[in-house]
Structures are given as C-alpha cells and as structure tokens.
Design goal:
mainly alpha, about 240 residues, Ribonucleotide Reductase, subunit A
Amino acid sequence: MGFESWRRYFEANPVRQTALDAEIDWDAPLTLGARDRRALIRSFQRFELGESGDGERLLVKAAATRDPDYLAAVRLLVAEEQRHSALFARGLERLGGDPLGAHWSDRAFTSLRRLLGLRTEIALFLIAETVAVGYFHALARAAPDPVLRGIGRRILTDERQHVRFQVARLRHDFRSTPRLVRDAVGACWWLVAVGAATVLVLDHRGALRACGLHPLAYWGKSLRQFGRAARVALRLEPERG
C-alpha cells in the first residue's frame, strides 16, 4: 500500500468500525468475579489513558514529510486511537472503574517518543502496538465478559492495520539506509521492546490471567510479534501480503 491507499483505508474504516460497534451488547449482564473485575479495571485504565492523546506533535512531524496523503492518514489514525480510548472508558464504566488522570508508564513513553524525529516516534508506536496486539486478541477471544470480548474484537481489527501502517512508513524511511545502520537501529529497538513488553506484563498480568494467558508466555509471544514486524520495517526480510 502507498500512503494514498492508506488514506483511503482510514477514510473507509468508520463503516467497518460502526458495524463492529453494533455487535457489542452493552446491556448484557455482568457476571465477573471480584478479582477479575479489579484486574480488568486496572488494565483498562492504562489503555484508556495511553490511547487518549491528541497526537499534536506527531501531526507536526507528519506534516513535515510534505505528503498530504500520509498526513491525512495519520490524522485519521489519531482519531481511531481516541475512539479506542472512548471504548476503554465505556468498558471501565461497565466494570465500575474510573479513568486515570496520569500514570508513570504513559508519561515515560510519551517523553521518549517525543525526543527525536518521526522515525523514532513511529518506531515507538510500532513497539507499543506489536507488544499489545496479542492482549487485544486474548481479550477478543477469551475475556470473561461478552462486552469486553466485543471491545477486544473492535480494537484488534484496527490495531492489526495500525501495525501494518507503521511498518509501511518505516520501510519507506529506511529504504536507502545501509544494512549496518539498520542492524544497529534494530538492536536499539529490541532494548526498548523488551522494556515495553516487561512493563505490559507487569501492569496487565491479572487481566492476562483472566483471559487465560500466562504472563511469562505472553511476554515471549509479544516479543516474537515485535521481531517479525521490526524485520520487515527495517527491510531485513520481505514484506508478506
């Protein structure tokens, strides 16, 4: 996909999102046990906060590419992430939890991704999304509540495409970079990815268990997911359809 194709994808996506939203039965009875409910509240609080940003600095960097299709796609991507935040907020309301005003992991991630240019910010988004996509899959497949499963399905559908979009941008930006430099960049990404996966597992271990996943097994799986995406993004292996 070129960025014009991505713009068209994001423009059309609200129709698909509306259809998935309509499948969520928000009035279904809630039968969660107290331990699972507390764990899922804690987890949803982190994700609601992390997805709620306005993307202002990212949009400034996207505008600097002078590619109107890419800028439009990023704008629509940010809007999708904000809709994810709203879904997590509705999930919190169902669970009887309140949104967080702030959290150290969100502040640290936001500060880190703002340090350098567009490639660094996109790489950090790729890391965050690849280590989290398995969580959304587990939520969609095995959350102990039908509404939470619906939220998981809805977000998973978007996030899989968000990963592909970030990979497309990075492949474009690394197209002329020497192999040795790409190898060094990949090593730096791995350090960040290990930290991100570790934080996710520690922060969300109760929710992972509620969805039938062992946190340590998830840690390894999430890093393998990142590794596959990183190799394609850095043009260390060909992109698959």
